[in-house]
Amino acid sequence: MNKFDFNCDMGESYGAWTMGNDKAIMPYVTSVNIACGFHGGDAHIMRKTVASAIKHKINIGAHPGLNDLPGFGRRAFPVSPEQAYDLVVVQVGALAAVAKTQGARLHHVKTHGALYNMAANNNALSQAIAQAVLDVDDTLVLYALANSRQAHIAQEMGLQVAHEVFADRSYQDDGTLTPRGMPGAIISDPQQAIQQLVTMLEKGHVITLSGKQVPIRADTLCIHGDQPDAAHFARQIHETLKRQGLF
């Protein structure tokens, strides 16, 4: 990835339930992370989201999560490394097949929600997820929390890794994301979020919720498609990145 990557979690609707506004956000991002049916999404939504990504000529990624539709994959519960391996293999394999039927292939994998956060600094889970990606397709890029153990372990195992940062989430002093249940976890003010992004890109650090400066590597930026007014937020970030010469 020679230019900065801007990604969004998408395809998380299923059945009669709608999550986010994928159609409005798609023109502003360069990569999409598509739910694979376990935390959100279904076979129909997967096919439609892949088709839309192909139309917009953007990177297609699998977004595997815990098997937890009622909790949208954001509830942490015990998962063994073997279970994490199986979850990733099955979900990545499913989306790869959907992409192949439309003449496309996957570019990356990014775990979702609780699985993402659990793996960030858990060696065993990180190794299991990296091995799953390697076994399915060793050319895939793993999107992982910037500077996390997961990012470093995956690189050591031979995967290409994109260190991921967030404009719409606050950070803790150890470089992890503030848990969603804590006050200040979500940055809802677009200008504050964009300022956090610019600081990360220009100065190489993020200001944590406590006010500490923590060094950070930024290869790809994520926004959440389910946040309020996500399409407007995506457009503002897109314009900021263009001004920075990163698109």
Strand order of the main beta sheet, please? Answer: 1-2-3-4-5-6-9
CATH architectural category: Alpha-Beta Barrel
CATH topology: TIM Barrel
Largest sheet: 7 strands, parallel, barrel
Query: What structural category characterises the helix and strand content?
Result: alpha/beta
How many domains, as an integer? 1
String of helices and strands: EHEHEHEHHEHEHEEEH
Report the strand count. Answer: 9
| Proportion of residues in β-strands | 15-25%
Low-confidence stretches: none
Just give the CATH class: Alpha Beta
Rg computed from alpha carbons, rounded to a whole number of angstroms: 17 Å
Shape verdict: globular
Mean pLDDT: 94
CATH superfamily: Glycoside hydrolase/deacetylase
How much helicity do the residues have? 25-40%
> What is the number of helical segments per DSSP (H or I, 4+ residues)?
8
Distance between the termini: 11 Å
